[in-house]
TrEMBL record:
<feature type="binding site">
    <location>
        <position position="333"/>
    </location>
    <ligand>
        <name>thiamine diphosphate</name>
    </ligand>
</feature>
<feature type="binding site">
    <location>
        <position position="540"/>
    </location>
    <ligand>
        <name>substrate</name>
    </ligand>
</feature>
<dbReference type="InterPro" id="IPR005478">
    <property type="entry name" value="Transketolase_bac-like"/>
</dbReference>
<feature type="binding site">
    <location>
        <position position="427"/>
    </location>
    <ligand>
        <name>substrate</name>
    </ligand>
</feature>
<feature type="binding site">
    <location>
        <position position="454"/>
    </location>
    <ligand>
        <name>substrate</name>
    </ligand>
</feature>
<dbReference type="InterPro" id="IPR005475">
    <property type="entry name" value="Transketolase-like_Pyr-bd"/>
</dbReference>
<feature type="binding site">
    <location>
        <position position="508"/>
    </location>
    <ligand>
        <name>thiamine diphosphate</name>
    </ligand>
</feature>
<dbReference type="GO" id="GO:0004802">
    <property type="term" value="F:transketolase activity"/>
</dbReference>
<feature type="site" description="Important for catalytic activity">
    <location>
        <position position="96"/>
    </location>
</feature>
<comment type="similarity">
    <text>Belongs to the transketolase family.</text>
</comment>
<dbReference type="InterPro" id="IPR020826">
    <property type="entry name" value="Transketolase_BS"/>
</dbReference>
<feature type="binding site">
    <location>
        <position position="333"/>
    </location>
    <ligand>
        <name>substrate</name>
    </ligand>
</feature>
<feature type="domain" description="Transketolase-like pyrimidine-binding">
    <location>
        <begin position="424"/>
        <end position="596"/>
    </location>
</feature>
<feature type="site" description="Important for catalytic activity">
    <location>
        <position position="333"/>
    </location>
</feature>
<dbReference type="Pfam" id="PF00456">
    <property type="entry name" value="Transketolase_N"/>
</dbReference>
<dbReference type="GO" id="GO:0009570">
    <property type="term" value="C:chloroplast stroma"/>
</dbReference>
<keyword id="KW-0808">Transferase</keyword>
Amino acid sequence: MAASASSTFSQSLLSRAIPNHPSLSFLSAVKPSLPSARAAASSSRRRSTRSRSSCAVVRAAAVETLQKTDTELVEKSVNTIRFLAIDAVEKANSGHPGLPMGCAPMGHILYDEVMRYNPKNPYWFNRDRFVLSAGHGCMLQYALLHLAGYDAVKEEDLKQFRQWGSQTPGHPENFETPGVEVTTGPLGQGIANAVGLALAEKHLAARYNKPDAEIVDHYTYVILGDGCQMEGIANEACSLAGHWGLGKLIAFYDDNHISIDGDTEIAFTENVDARFEALGWHVIWVKNGNTGYDEIRAAIEEAKAVKDKPTMIKVTTTIGFGSPNKANSYSVHGAALGSKEVEATRQNLGWPFEPFHVPEDVKKHWSRHTPEGAALEAEWNAKFAEYSKKYPEEAAELKSITTGELPSGWESALPTYTPESAADATRNLSQQNLNALATVLPGFLGGSADLASSNMTLMKAFGDFQKSTPEERNLRFGVREHGMGAICNGIALHSPGFIPYCATFFVFTDYMRGAMRISALSEAGVIYVMTHDSIGLGEDGPTHQPIEHIASFRAMPNIFMFRPADGNETAGAYKIAVESRKTPSVLALSRQKLPQLPGTSIEGVAKGGYVISDNSTGNKPDVILAGTGSELEIAAKAGDELRKEGKAVRVVSLVSWELYDKQSDEYKESVFPAGVTARVSIEAASTFGWQKFVGDKGKAIGIDKFGASAPAGKIYKEYGLTVEAVIEAAKSFF
């Protein structure tokens, strides 16, 4: 009875949600729309539909071969998902019930019929990955994890939705909830992460699968909404997915035509199907996502049959499906239904159960995933054991990537330098480190946003990861900084031994800050290789010269901001970055040549701040000079001059404030003794934050305005970043 009622309701609401979609003449209720834009889109959709008529035949045939579950039980399971979401949002009086209510059918089919996973080991390597890019609808995922038997989401966790300390936060967080692959919420990030996950699978399969042993074989599934489609990052990432031919990436587009401000026709009328086809995706349209279970099943089967392209399955749904008064409206998007509407929805869908109740037949049906998941993992483990006997070297590499256990002695590959070593830009020294690490770290891969020859990020031993050469390790991102960062997050979170890096000019972190913040939040240890770190880049001028950027990353939690001064500090920064799999690192690197300074060391970088030269005794220098990057040389030269005048001078490198902050009070006292208030800092960037080191009586030399277009030496002189300026500031204390 419930199935029949909701089916009728589905047809009514579907007609309101997609009035101009073709092939829906059986629906009668049509709501007004903005005619010109929607009509144009409708016409284009009709052309697209005709061009895919042959695919419809394939889907119809596929229905006959798919595993099916009793329709009544499916409907009951789908409504269980809906009401778990409704009840959790209602109890919290906060959340987004509309998406889970509309996407429950596709969620059910994915988790119950399609995906391979082990709920008792959410980190089994060869599991299928699922990303809810529309993270605001997270109660969909929590309900699915609960039904599937994941220990992280018990009934009590559902009841604690959005509450302090719960494992069911307001958006999916991989570091809080085992079973959640990536952290989503900022729209578009999730689909871009999914591209990274799918890239990782394709890369590993190409490197390690053998004709007699397919050891890497899993899919990445995504649900994204209209908001994700509008964000530029989604287009950047999906463009690359099409270019790379990520055939095991299947994205479900929740086509419900509603965003926070209302119907998407007010701002979003493009033909998404045509855009994705142009991006190189296979596109399928499921017209009835509310009750068209067989359509969804067949679409997935068709998507899996397409090996050389990612697939977007546009699933037309009704947001808030089942709610008599709020479905298909923005009011169901981001607020609890309210007790009266909850009761009306229960009546409408024939749901007589108390809040959070899972019917016994639904519970029994889903319970099979625990033994089935364990069997899948056991089967894979046995297969990998055989693989290890036949291919021990490849197995050892793959194990390193899947476990995060770095090869023994890897750090010995890092180059070291002496003061006699040639002066060089730290971007070039970075390239030496990258290429050294590439030979010893099997999970090391990355690339640049169309600046590889400037960022110096090519690994010379490898070719380009492309559609036909996915085993290679140089990634060509094109001019897509934001997508690049989010894709690298997906790679990092695919397996703990992946160490992705990405590169651009430091100032262009402005284009990718959203992804970098998610790196820090989601504990994705991406290495951000950022060159052209200051006014030292010279003639390109203020549009390309970072000023506030260093300070902004120092203010961001759980990210290491490195500004190395020479080769040893660059190597030290890479050592920490590689070891820090749950903390991303930013390396700000120079364009101009810098000398190899006496006193710098890999070990010193691990402290974040350390003394590189000191002629004082008793921990009582006359003055402390501190600097980073290219200005550490200036501080060192100023120290030498002051010592000639009989002064006791300590020079300190503060290569990473975050690492220095982790040191003991005793160590900090040995670097910056409290009794010494004569302190001068110099950095070619904003002085914001330096007071914590120089104190109220100290002096911070830096730049608190935009840069200029001129040769680097001229800008440094005009901006007062000179040895003379440091000496003058130091002498003001004597």
